[in-house]
Design goal:
With about 160 residues, this protein is an alpha+beta fold. It has 5 helices and 4 strands. Helix 1 runs parallel beside helix 2 and helix 3 crosses helix 4.
Length: about 160
């Protein structure tokens, strides 16, 4: 819940409101690359392997007969045996991105959008208002924010031809 500043430069000292303490709101999500349908798992503690398994189960229940491939980054809790076994039991293929390549993960673009839309230069006096702003933004990805997200969530990636160095 810390404040995210836009650009600030001034001669006078400016104090930005920020809440006391540390509260956490985690969102683990899966984004369909074609339809942009978003499936999320949220909590107020930590994201761990059980949360990833819960997300995989949610995906399988949502798409019971479709072949599923889930692209993951290299977080340790996503590469553990529990997640790999759960994915195998649910018949979900796990594809791991190369290290240090968040630009290849579409959901990272969505998180950047949410941060800009909900958190940049915003003060939320209560944790519930903070959670509601994020939840509302994620809920409205298919209607209110659809046009803004259409240009961000494209499958345009820069490729390089094989060449000699």
């Amino acid at each position: 819940m810390r404040p995210f500043l836009g650009f600030l430069w001034c001669f006078a000292r400016v104090f930005i409101k920020a809440p006391r303490g540390r509260q956490r709101f985690n969102v683990l999500g899966a984004l369909d690359a074609v339809t942009h349908q978003l499936v999320t798992v949220t909590n107020d503690s930590y994201i761990n392997a059980l949360c990833v398994c819960h997300l995989l189960l949610k995906l399988r229940l949502l798409f019971p007969d479709d072949p599923l491939s889930v692209v993951l980054d290299n977080a340790r809790y996503q590469r553990c045996r529990l997640v790999i076994d759960a994915a195998a039991a649910l018949e979900i293929e796990l594809l791991f991105l190369p290290p240090y390549s968040p630009n290849l993960n579409l959901i990272e673009r969505l998180w950047k959008f949410v941060k800009k839309e909900c958190l940049a230069t915003q003060y939320y006096p209560a944790f519930d208002a903070f959670k509601e702003a994020i939840t509302s933004c994620l809920t409205h990805t298919h209607d209110i924010h659809k046009d803004k997200l259409a240009t961000l969530l494209t499958l345009n990636f820069q490729t390089f031809d094989n060449g000699t160095l």
